[in-house]
Amino acid sequence: MKIIDILNQKKVTLSFEVFPPKTEEALLSVEKATEIIAALRPDFMSVTYGAGGGTSKHTTRIAADLEKKYGTNVLAHLTCVSSTKETVRKMIDTYKEHGIRNIMALRGDIPAEGRSVFDYNYASELIYDIKSHDGDFCIGGACYPEGHVESASQAEDIRHLKEKVDAGCDFLTTQMFFDNSTMYSFLYRIREIGIEVPVVAGIMPITTKAQVKRTVALSGATIPHRFRAMVDRFGDDPQKMKQAGIVYAAEQIVDLIANDVSHIHVYTMNKPEIAAGIQSSLSALWG
Q1: Distance (Å, rounded) from C-alpha 73 to C-alpha 1?
Q2: 17, 67, 125, 146: which is the annotated catalytic residue?
Q3: Is the pLDDT of residue 171 over 90?
């Protein structure tokens, strides 16, 4: 089923993201975790894709299994960084052969060695190419409630976001954020310039102190005082920090739903207990 149809039909949706391993040795454990998460019956699951296709084989395998073995609606990622138009079109054909009809089209992270000459410079170009190659795909795109870290301003970032939508993006999913007021402000600004596609709120439960330094620093997300206080109080106790992180994320989601931001996407980090904890907290609201 196309993701856009799910978003348009249901008042509240809950979806989970998983990522494929970089090595064959880790594939079995990731597949097991993915199977457990799929058993929670989310509205859909997304499977990420390494820049330049580094994990494309595993992305396809995991996504195809979710679709065929477990009957889960799948959103397979595709990045344009370090990719040629030929490799991208081969991946599009591969996804189609496996019955995958939803693609998350992303620019991807610039390699550590720096930007080289790619066939695509922006996600909008990739979105347009997918639509031109086969217009029957449902395409998702990324958005940034606080602006992309490489953009000179949020206004510039929103202009680029409009280009993605105009190129054929059917819906958007946000980067993680920890202060819902930034999301509400962002939605007002994009609706004001005519971006009307559904926006899915991306939520990452922070369950370890190490995640704060690594993930939060990379995203550039604003850290509210309440979040800092949680980490200061529970960060040195792994079990308490995990529980507190799940509760914080669940409270974020409840507030979002109460304010009509009803499509929620959880970055699970391949941890079934996190997905289950969030789902359990929302059982009366979702479905």
Answers
A1: 6
A2: 17
A3: yes
Token match 């930034």: residue?
182
Nearest to 224 by CA among 252, 260, 202: 252
Could you tell me the two tokens for 142? 């990324």
Torsion of CA 214, 126, 180, 230, to 10 degrees: -10
**DSSP calls for 177-206:** -S-HHHHHHHHHHHHHTT--S-EEEEE---
**Cβ-Cβ contacts under 8 Å for 97 (sequence gap 6 or more):** none
Model pLDDT for residues 128-156, shown as the tens digit of each residue? 999 888 778 999 999 999 987 777 788 89
Q: Is the pLDDT of residue 54 over 60?
A: no
**Most confident by average pLDDT, 12-26, 78-92, 136-150, 235-249:** 235-249
CA distance 151 to 122: 13
Selection from 200, 224, 103, 105 nearest residue 145 by Cα:
200
Burial class (CB in 10 A: 0-12, 13-18, 19+), 116: exposed
Taking 70 as the threshold, does the pLDDT of residue 112 lie above it?
no
Helices (H), 147-287: 154-167, 180-192, 209-211, 217-219, 225-234, 238-258, 272-281
Positive/negative CA dihedral, 153, 249, 15, 57: positive
- Give catalytic status of residue 86 as yes or no: no
How far apart (Å, rounded) are the C-alpha atoms in residues 116 and 111? 9
Segment 181-208 mean pLDDT: 96
Element (H, E) at 145: none
Distance CA 171, CA 165 (A): 8
Distance, in Å, from the CA atom of 127 to the CA atom of 246, rounded to the nearest integer, reads 34
- The model's pTM is 0.93
Q: What is the mean pLDDT of the chain?
A: 89
pLDDT at 286: 73
